[in-house]
Amino acid sequence: MTDQSKGILFAVFGVLFIVPDSLFIRLLNADVYTIIVWRSFISGFFILLGLFVYHRGNIINVFRNIGPNAILFGLFLALSGPLFALSISMTAVSNTVFIIATMPVFSAFSSWFLLGEKISRRMAWTIIFALFGISLIALGSAQDLNTSVWGDLCAVGCAACFGTSLTFARKSKASSMIPVTPFALFASGLVFLPWATPFVFNGMDAPIALLHNSLIATSTCLIAISPRYITSAEVALLILGESILAPILVWAVIGEHPGSWALTGGAVVLLTLFISNMIALKQRKRI
Q1: How far, in Å, are 44, 45, 55 from residue 49 at the CA level?
Q2: Which residues touch 102 (CB under 8 Å, ≥6 apart)?
Q3: Average pLDDT in the 189-211 region?
Q4: What are the φ and ψ backbone dihedral angles of 92, each rounded to 5 degrees?
Q5: Rounded distance, CA 172 to CA 78, Å?
């Protein structure tokens, strides 16, 4: 199997495993701080367990080889998870996932700042149209009592943090980011632990939380691996699938309608990113 095929498979399955994420948050009865703690500790435990099983006697050397770029990757990853959960708790799922789809915009900014990569004309236009789409979503949130601009801002923060973390993953292409991931998750859980009640389960919370976080752990690892085999444009293009499928799943299961402003703004964002990434892939193939 070629590196291209490996990277695509890792990214596709990573996206499929993360699609139900927002639905699970809606189905849980717990408060958002408890959900953040569950997301952090349970998924972090699964990843750590997987590392021990995979590396066995070499696990100490794996942790010793964690470099500064991996630590910075972990820092931004630790911020992105809680921001996602907070956004889902305050605004519509569609708003959150459509805004998070702008992650490549923030990857471009962080790549310019950290790696010295120039922002191309294509990316400049992508940024302009993506921000226009976000503005439409925010305008709808200001008029709808079921959504919140604060929730939209948390989604922007999540996109910025996750986009920046992928830039650090690219910067350390030769090494895996997975060993630092569980510690990043544990750190974000510890921050919110004082406000959470992680040992109180209502209804089906326990099995839902277990399934939810096992999927998050798997998805996090697969998406963290994929930039080692394919370009960030290809990863970003595949991640758009989550932004399309997640609102449909939530709408089908619990009847949460995205709203006209979110659909319009989301369509602008997704179409812009799709066209931008297709152009990037064609330009890459010509080289």
Answers
A1: 9, 6, 10
A2: 130, 131, 133, 134, 156, 159, 269, 273
A3: 92
A4: -70, 150
A5: 18
Structural domain containing residue 261:
3-286
CB 152 within 8 A of CB 91: yes
Contact (Cβ atoms closer than 8 angstroms) between residue 35 and residue 216: no
Residue recorded with tokens 């958002």: 32
Three-state DSSP at 197 gives coil
Tell me the mean pLDDT in the region 188-209.
92
Q: What is the mean pLDDT of residues 39-65?
A: 84
Number of domains in the chain: 1
Residue ranges with strand state E in 48-171:
none
How buried is 143 (Cβ within 10 angstroms: 0-12 exposed, 13-18 middle, 19+ buried)?
A: exposed
* 18, 219 Cβ separation under 8 angstroms: yes
Residues 258-287, mean pLDDT to the nearest whole number: 79
Quick one: CA torsion of 73, 74, 76, 80, rounded to 10 degrees?
130
Look up residue 150 and give its DSSP letter: H
Q: Could you tell me the pTM of the whole model?
A: 0.85
Q: What is the pLDDT of residues 67-112, one digit of tens each?
A: 788 888 899 999 999 999 999 999 989 899 999 888 878 888 888 8
Q: How many CB atoms lie within 10 A of CB 254?
A: 11
